[in-house]
Amino acid sequence: MKKHFIFLVLVLIISLYSTGCMAPQNSGSVMQNPQIPSVPPNDSQIITNTSGSGVPLTQITALPVNLTDKNEQIKTFAESIRKIKKTGIHNIPIIDVEFHWDKDMDIGKIIDNMDRNGVALTWLGPNEQQGSEESLRLNKLYPDKFVPTTVHGDGPLWHGSDMNFLDKLNREVRSGDYFAMGEFEARHYPSSTNNRDVHMPLDSNTFELVFKASNDTGVPFLIHHEAEDAMLPELEKTLTKYPKAKVVWCHFGRNRNPVTWSKFTTPDAARELLIKYPNLYFDIVQSQPGSKYQTGYVDAIMYDTTQSPSTLKPEWKKVIEEFPDRFVLGSDINGGRFGSYDQVLNTFRQIILPAMPNDVAEKIAYKNAWNLMTGEDWKD
C-alpha cells in the first residue's frame, strides 16, 4: 500500500511539471522598474486607431520594451535626436512639447508625420478621459517617439477642481514616471475646435497644486493663458511664489484683442517677464501668418505679412535671440486640428528656425525642451 501511494504521488508530480504548473522561474528575466509599469500582453498587438480627420488608417506593429530606469529612457530619447541629426532630411531635430493625444487619432499617422517633419520626440499629453497612464502605455510601445506626459488640464474635472483628479495628478507628477506635465488652462477663449470660455485663476488652489508639484520635482508644465492686461497679476504672483516651477506659457507672438491685450501688442511685455522670472518659458504661436481670431483681429502678430513669403518681425526675433534658452516649439495638435500638423511644422521650419543663428535655432527646436524634460543640457 505504501509503495502504491508513493507511486501515485510521483505520477502526480510528473503530471504537474509537464503542464508547467511547477515549472521553475526564469532567473534571467529582466527586472521590472516599479516606477515604469510593464506593458500588458495585448498592448503589443498592432495598433489600428482610426483618425478623426479622415486620413487613411495606418497599421504599425508596436515594439514594447522594458526600460529598467530613466537613464535608459533618456538614452533612447537621445538616440532619436541623433538619428535625425545624422540621417534625417532636416539637420535640426524638433521636440514637440504640446500635443493633445486623442484616442481616435491614428498612432501610425502621428509617427509618419513626426518622421516626415523631423520631429524626434513628442510630449504626448492625454485628455481627462484617457488619463496620464495612456501616455505611459504609448511610451512603452514607442519609447523612441513619445515622452511620458501627464494629462492635460482642459476638461470638466480640471475646471471643476475635482479633488480625485487633482490628487491623482499630484501623485503622478511625484511618482518619477513622467518627464513633463500637460497644458493647463487658466484664461481660455473659444477656438476653432472647442467652445470653452473659462477662467481657472493661476493663483487658485487648483493651479497652486500644479505649480507646487513642479516647484518640488522640477517637472515642467504648460499653461494656456490669454494675455489680457487684467490677467497678468495672477501669473506674476504665482511665478513669484514658486520660483523653481518650470512654466511654459503657450503661444508667444499671439494677440487676440489689442484693446484688452494692450501690453502684448509688442514683445516688450514678454521681455520684461523673462527678465523678472527665470522660471518662465514660452512656446511659439502655432497660428499661420495673417490668420485671424474670431474677433477679426490678426492672431499671430509676430509675422510681417507685407511681403511674400512672410517673415518674422525684427523686434520679435530680437527677444528670442536675447533669451535663447527660454523658447520651445509645440504643434498644439488635437483631434480637430490633426490635419494641420505639416502646416504648423512648416511654419517653424520655413520662418522661425531659418531666421535664427544656428545655435539659437537648435536651442528652441530641441535643446531647451531637452533641458526641461531631463534637467540636463544636451550633449552632442
CATH architecture: Alpha-Beta Barrel
Termini separation: 77 Å
Approximate shape:
globular
Order of helices and strands: HHEHEHEHHEEEHEHEHEEEHEHH
Report the portion of residues in β strands: 5-15%
Q: Given the helix and strand composition, which structural class is it?
A: alpha/beta
Calculate the mean pLDDT score and round it: 85
The counted number of beta strands is 12
CATH superfamily: Metal-dependent hydrolases
Looking at CATH, which topology would you report?
Answer: TIM Barrel
Write out the strand line-up for the largest beta sheet, numbering strands in chain order.
4-7-8-9-12
Give me the number of helical elements.
12
Question: Can you put this structure into words, describing what you see?
Answer:
By secondary structure, the protein is α/β, with parallel strands linked by helices. The protein is about 35% helix and about 10% strand. The protein has a single domain (about 40-375), classed as Metal-dependent hydrolases (TIM Barrel). The protein contains twelve helices and twelve strands. The strands form four sheets. It has a five-stranded parallel β-sheet with strand order 4-7-8-9-12. A three-stranded parallel β-sheet has the order 1-2-3. The protein has a two-stranded antiparallel sheet with strand order 5-6.
